[in-house]
């Protein structure tokens, strides 16, 4: 990645990280409920993600994927860990929706494109195995929100997929 692109992505992530952590903490302190309060600073960062996605989608998506991997709890299988995992996935998915809506059709590598598709279909197919509604009923609302966001991301990916096919033909 070029040094200018890296600086822009790094600056944007410096704004994104504390806002994302606050949303994760808010989710954890409100007993699994993911509150959607109006947060102008967070919305502004998501808008900035969308603008950057138009010009440098690969470094931005790679940075979001690294953030997701670093924030996702490893190893623990209790309500708190699943709650944090769902919150991280909701934030990642929200960012990806904005990202995909503004990303040029040919802006991603095939590997990154496939990774996003795998992410959405993995959650759609395996959500109950990952976070069972029976075992974790307190997380049902948060899980439902994630699946709603995943469905929105499928829609955004579908639009881009059509444009990619038209662009390639």
From TrEMBL:
One of its GO terms (cellular component) is site of polarized growth. It comes from Lactuca saligna (Willowleaf lettuce). GO terms for biological process: cell morphogenesis. This is Cell morphogenesis protein N-terminal domain-containing protein. Transmembrane segments: none annotated. It comes from the Eukaryota. Residues 83-161 form the Cell morphogenesis protein N-terminal domain.
